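Subgroup meeting minutes
Present: P.N., E.W., G.H.
Scribe: E.W.

1. P.N. recapped why we're keeping a running log of single-chain structure predictions: easier to compare across weeks, and new members can see raw inputs and outputs side by side.
2. G.H. added today's entry (477 aa).
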Amino acid sequence: MALMKLTFWGAAGTVTGSMHLLESDGKRYLLDCGLFQGRRKDADLKNRKLPFPGASIDAVVLSHAHIDHSGNLPTLVKNGFAGPIYSTPASIDLCNWMLRDTAHIQEKDAEFVNKRLAKRQAAGQAGESNGNGIVQPLYTAADAERTLPLFRPVPYHQPFQLSGTLSYEAYDAGHILGSSCLVLNQTSGGAPLRLTYSGDVGRPNLPIIRDPEKMPPTDYLIMESTYGGRLHKSVEHVINKLADVINRTARRGGRIIVPAFAVGRTQQLVLLLHQLFNEKRIPNIPLFVDSPLALNVTQVHRDHPECFDAETRQYLTAGEDPFGFKRLQYIREAAESKKLNDLHGPFVVISASGMCEQGRILHHLRNNIEDPRNTVLITGFMAQDTLGRKLVEKWPEVRIFGEPTRVRAEIASLDELSGHADQSELLEWIKPMVGSLRKVFLVHGEPSQSETFAKLLHTKYGLEAVCPAPGQSFDLA
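Output recorded in log:
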């Protein structure tokens, strides 16, 4: 007798757009509801057309606040969902800013593109649109505002009853502030059944947050596999590499443009640059964090020191703000952001979005990517078909706001800061669960990564690991 039914709708055969449907005792739950990121037209279609009515979902359990896990919640609400969204307090505080910011960006980007389309059409040029000449935002600020009151806080290690027979408990995933692995316990129909969802598994020894927690035994596991076929370089070398990029670009008189996720990555970079400035290992150049979201998210970090690791707490003990120092300036207003275009001399600007798909980073890239003195510093995973991936792959020309642009700036990568566990770290994380596992479902990975890791789980641990396709269902008995 099946006690649960799992259907994989997002991040199945791809990295982004996490969305897994769990059915239990006549109720339907979503584990995450994230934005798919990739080729613009494909992404827009997938994000707009949910595979079920929003009203058919009883509740959402959210692993963490990254937009590829939380960013399509307003679309779900727009399509009729009105149930609770459960997550950790820190994740809820992050989503409070992130969903508003994403809605604002959707509206502003649509407005920007529509203006350019109107100019092209006036000049008799063809342009991309939805057929009627108007690009619509995926969702609006009003949709985001309707979503926020639905959040319900569930702290780590406080089991929460979703129904009479289904409960869940959150464990620290060590990925970003408030990130969690979700352990779901079904108690009806005889012997209890346990399903664990990894969310995104973090790495040990990363700045700011605690390491991933050891997980309890489980029957079934939904597991991320972003780096299932790769090994990261040691975290210990990251600060030397960062200093090298800053120093060589500054010697050229260039700018360091850093696309970075506003949650986690921006705060890590600020902390490391704080350390380098203190140690006088990089020149005394200005540093700008040009992202209203990053500014708000950084305050959320300050509000949740209970999530910090010992090293970050030492700053607090010494009376220092780990995310603020003399040469650092946070920029909120668009007018101040535009002034950076006229600033002379080397400087660093960190801006969202991390995969270079929307937001202010696109304007910085458009204004700086054709100057060989400058450096674009890539600091995290870039999904297939995103602008960030094209830069990593050293495309000589890319399209920014629909216009072809030559890539003459240096493109450097800082892989060591990845917030995702690599192959060896994933193998270590799963080890406590191996003895009880019946099946592993690998998600949140490109096929080459997931399939490589599935084979490794079988040969090393004797586990049955499957890579589900979008829409594929499994009964858990």
